[in-house]
């Protein structure tokens, strides 16, 4: 850890030095790891919007393991879906949305989009190590028009910055339970107009469950060049890659008998993602800033699976003396984005107002190859024993968006934002489905994205440290690949499918006073034209399944964060916090297929939305050392829209029980450049699961980790 002190005009005496040191220590013990974004920052306007900034530097959390409940502990309402095993991707959602790889968020790294294909498969398969992250910025859906139109808002991972010296080195190394080994190493520096930051990370883990091992590696190089005091160019390349051995889903009885057990030994998943980008940041005038970025997501999502229910065993055939052939699926991502953003400040009514505007162009081609006949082997092998694919499809998107938002500062303490976004694009599906000789003329599909979206926000400053905020913003979620791909010969995709649209509404009171910090808010999220399946009868009186819009849902709730910090003496402080959320998510005017009938689910609870989530913790800091305790509670939730209570034989539907988890994390400053982190995760070894997925990685129960330990040594030179 490096502490920067002010440069004094004269050499201080020993007494002055002692006083300066005491003041610095007091500042450290009062440092808060949860903050808010400025009203205007970079080329964005955040005034009137609920947002959080999570500082990760020296945070008491198992960062290598990426436990979402620890990283996002102080963000009320964040639902964490444990799916990819320890240390792999973070899967979260807010306000009753789907947590699958965060695909309801506009996810960025240093402002560059990392969603794999916003219109085909919006999950973010890029997997940044938390050791490389300085802070995480989360802006809820009412701010979405400036960067996308996602219901969840924006999630931005901000990297550590280059050191001001010519060369700085950092090494963060972790060992832990179940064979966890991780090494993160970085170099950075500044030389004249040139700055650089480069890192690599390797990690392996044998896994909490049998057949749950994984191997991960990632790299990054960022180069900055200051052409003049007002113009900086940044070129970056980053990559992530991991292979995880999927242990398979369990039934309820299997989970009860042994949550560490495995039903699969030959299933693997592997996303390898490359993200190159170039950014120009230009301060064109005292009140004008322009930012141009162009980037790409290039890579593949690979899987090889024996893809059956948990009740179907993967065993050697007594006749052939071999395992069954596995299914190979590959998604090839080719997604290109260019953004031009402007922030213009100007004087109005004697106050400084701001205009944020810009254009965004996306050109994506998602090439999906599925149902390949893979080998009968047990290793990670994507080869096909029979050439050709059961599905070989392209989803191509061209989309142009223009957005503008103006912050009208009407009074010194009161501002109103008004904004709009215009989407103009089209997505086309083409290709072949060899399985079942699916009719070629039923495959092509076209989805148009032509509509305006509007937003308004307001903020009133009660004092320098307290304000009221409120906002309303429209949002939409494009129809994605899985929504329109027929799964069988008797399944059709509606040619008149509509993108899901709706809005976010929120209002809150946030601020700080003496030892207390808080943010309390009410929200409402309307999600119209949800996608699902209905049963119909065709002209030949045959039963068919139609993938179409099935109805709406509304989620409303309260979010509370408050933290109190008490100075115990000159070198010690104690902080207590709670981040608690209540959510009521219900279907409206919705109908889904149940067997051979269509059934109304109007008034039913939306799946995977627990009514209550609460995280509560305490941190004791003494000089440069700290100890944190965290309690996390998640209420029960349903796995399907029919709100089935009793689990079925495969474990794919039924209640997801509530659970309490306890974690302990310590951070010890041994010297100015050497730190030690100690973590006990799920201290009481609670057996639990967070969701019963209906599709990947397989319908059924996916147990989360039991108790684990880890130790991290950080060296900064």
Description:
With 717 residues, this protein is mainly beta. The chain contains 4 helices and 38 strands. The strands form 6 sheets. It has a 22-stranded antiparallel barrel.
Features:
22-stranded antiparallel beta barrel, 717 residues, single chain, mainly beta
The helix content, as a percent range, equals under 10%
Distance between the termini: 9 Å
What Rg is obtained from the alpha carbons, in whole angstroms? 26 Å
Q: Using DSSP, what is the number of strands?
A: 38
Structural class: mainly beta
Shape: globular
Question: Are there runs of 5+ residues with pLDDT below 50, and where?
Answer: 1-29
Number of helices: 4
Roughly what is the average pLDDT, rounded to an integer?
91
- Note the beta-strand portion: over 45%
| Biggest β-sheet strands, sense, barrel | 22 strands, antiparallel, barrel
């Amino acid at each position: 850890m490096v502490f920067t002190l002010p440069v004094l005009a004269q050499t201080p005496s020993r007494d002055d030095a002692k006083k300066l040191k005491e003041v610095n220590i007091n500042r450290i013990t009062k440092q808060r790891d949860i903050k808010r974004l400025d009203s205007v920052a970079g080329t964005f306007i955040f005034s009137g919007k609920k947002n959080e900034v999570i500082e990760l530097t020296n945070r008491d959390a198992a960062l290598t393991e990426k436990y979402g409940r620890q990283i996002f502990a102080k963000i009320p309402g964040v639902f964490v879906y444990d799916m990819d095993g320890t240390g792999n991707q973070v899967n979260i959602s807010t306000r009753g949305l789907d947590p699958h790889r965060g695909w309801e968020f506009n996810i960025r790294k240093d402002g560059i989009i990392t969603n794999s294909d916003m219109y085909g498969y919006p999950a973010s398969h890029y997997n940044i190590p938390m050791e490389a992250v300085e802070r995480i910025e989360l802006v809820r859906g009412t701010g979405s028009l400036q960067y996308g139109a996602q219901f969840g808002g924006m999630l931005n991972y901000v990297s550590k910055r280059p050191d001001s010296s010519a060369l700085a080195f950092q090494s963060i190394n972790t060992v832990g339970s179940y064979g966890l080994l991780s090494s993160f190493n970085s170099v950075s520096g500044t030389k004249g107009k040139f700055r650089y930051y480069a890192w690599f990370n390797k990690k392996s883990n044998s896994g909490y469950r049998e057949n749950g091992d994984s191997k991960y590696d990632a790299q990054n190089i960022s180069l900055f060049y200051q052409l003049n005091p007002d113009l900086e160019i940044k070129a970056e390349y980053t990559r992530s890659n991991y292979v995880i051995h999927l242990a398979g889903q369990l039934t309820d009885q299997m989970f009860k008998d042994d949550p560490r057990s495995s039903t699969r030994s030959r299933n693997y998943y592997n996303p390898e993602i490359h993200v190159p980008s170039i950014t120009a940041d230009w301060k064109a005038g005292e009140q004008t800033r322009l930012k141009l970025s162009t980037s790409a997501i290039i890579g593949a999502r690979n899987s090889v699976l024996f893809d059956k229910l948990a009740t179907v065993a993967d065993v050697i055939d007594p006749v052939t003396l071999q395992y069954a052939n596995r299914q190979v699926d590959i998604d090839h991502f080719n997604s290109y984005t260019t953004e031009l953003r402007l922030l213009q400040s100007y004087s109005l009514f004697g106050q400084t107002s701001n205009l944020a505007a810009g254009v965004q162009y996306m050109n994506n081609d998602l090439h999906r190859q599925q149902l390949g006949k893979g080998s009968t082997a047990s290793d990670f092998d994507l080869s096909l024993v029979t050439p050709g694919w059961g599905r070989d499809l392209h989803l191509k998107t061209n989309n142009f968006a223009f957005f503008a938002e103006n912050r009208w500062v009407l009074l010194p303490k009161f501002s109103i934002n008004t904004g709009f976004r215009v989407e103009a694009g089209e997505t086309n599906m083409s290709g072949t489905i060899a399985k079942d000789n699916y009719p070629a003329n039923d495959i092509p599909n076209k989805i148009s994205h032509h509509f305006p979206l509007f937003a308004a926000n307001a903020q009133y400053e009660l004092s320098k440290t307290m304000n009221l905020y409120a906002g309303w913003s429209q949002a939409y979620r494009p129809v994605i690949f899985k929504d329109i791909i027929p799964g069988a010969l008797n399944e059709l995709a509606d040619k008149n499918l509509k993108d899901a649209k709706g809005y976010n509404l929120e209002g809150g009171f946030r601020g700080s006073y003496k030892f207390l910090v808080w943010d309390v808010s009410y929200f409402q999220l309307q999600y119209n034209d949800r996608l699902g399946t209905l049963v119909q009868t065709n002209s030949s009186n045959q039963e068919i399944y139609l993938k179409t819009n099935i109805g709406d849902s509304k989620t409303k709730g309260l979010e509370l964060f408050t933290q109190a910090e008490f100075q115990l003496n000159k070198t010690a402080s104690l902080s207590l916090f709670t981040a608690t959320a209540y959510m009521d998510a219900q279907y409206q005017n919705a109908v889904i297929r149940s067997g051979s009938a269509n059934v109304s689910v109007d008034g039913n609870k939306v799946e995977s939305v627990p009514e209550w989530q609460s995280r509560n913790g305490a941190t004791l800091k003494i000089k440069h050392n700290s100890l944190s305790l965290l309690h996390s509670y998640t209420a029960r939730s349903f796995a399907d829209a029919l709100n089935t209570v009793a689990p079925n034989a495969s474990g794919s539907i039924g209640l997801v029980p509530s659970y309490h988890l306890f974690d302990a994390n310590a951070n010890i400053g041994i010297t100015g450049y050497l730190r030690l982190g100690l973590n006990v995760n799920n201290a009481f070894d609670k057996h639990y699961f967070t969701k019963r997925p209906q599709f990947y990685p397989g319908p059924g129960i996916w147990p989360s980790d039991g108790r684990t330990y880890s130790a991290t040594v950080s060296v900064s030179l």
